[in-house]
Amino acid sequence: EVQLVESGGGLVQPGGSLRLSCAASGFTFSSHWMHWVRQAPGKGLVWVSRISDDGSSTSYADSVKGRFTISRDNADNILYLQINSLRAEDTAVYYCARGIVTARGSVDHWGQGTLVTVSS
Amino acid sequence: EIVLTQSPATLSLSPGERATLSCRVSQGVSSYLAWYQQKPGQAPRLLIYDASNRATGIPARFSGSGSGTDFTLIISSLEPEDFAIYYCQQRSNWPLTFGGGTKVEIK
Prior knowledge:
The structure holds 2 protein chains of 2 kinds.
Chain A: E1 3-7, E2 10-12, E3 18-25, E4 34-39, E5 45-51, E6 58-60, E7 68-73, E8 78-83, E9 92-100, E10 103-110, E11 114-118
Parallel strand pairs in A: 2-11
Antiparallel strand pairs in A: 1-3, 3-8, 4-5, 4-9, 5-6, 7-8, 9-10, 9-11
Chain B: E1 4-7, E2 10-13, E3 19-25, E4 33-38, E5 45-49, E6 53-54, E7 62-67, E8 70-75, E9 85-90, E10 97-98, E11 102-106
Parallel strand pairs in B: 2-11
Antiparallel strand pairs in B: 1-3, 3-8, 4-5, 4-9, 5-6, 7-8, 9-10, 9-11
């Protein structure tokens, strides 16, 4: 069974940093692109970032470029999102999601999400 | 950035009725469009990818169609568990973008 378990969220002050983690199991992690998608309270889904299966290629939404860094550890099956210079508008549930091998920009499994709250 | 516009924003229907959801895209995305379902307090679930391919385990009452700029998700006969919010998403261009969602509610 595919499982994605996020952790690392919490309350942080504006300008602060967090590192989110996503532990993957039940599939060959190194064969899949991985994504982070966020959802502000009561709002829709917003794609944040993706990383290729081998970690050599990444992409970011303009709103987080330069502040967020996606990475992965294929030996330990963990996806990361380093988030710096946090702003109030970054408050959201952050989901990690698995890309479909044959349709990498679509995601077929999602974690349960981790809540990041940016507030003083 | 490609913009996805979903309509209607809310669809009020009864169990057993047919639901037709629309997703219009600001520029052609070929067939690179997916549909997701999200229930309150839950993560989204993939229903359809590449316009018309049902994801694993998705019932046959869900079907997707379209290409280019106009896409449709049809739920042929609503079950009680189908009342939720539905999002479309394109994977043709970066950044990936989602529509604003259609809420299917019980009438």
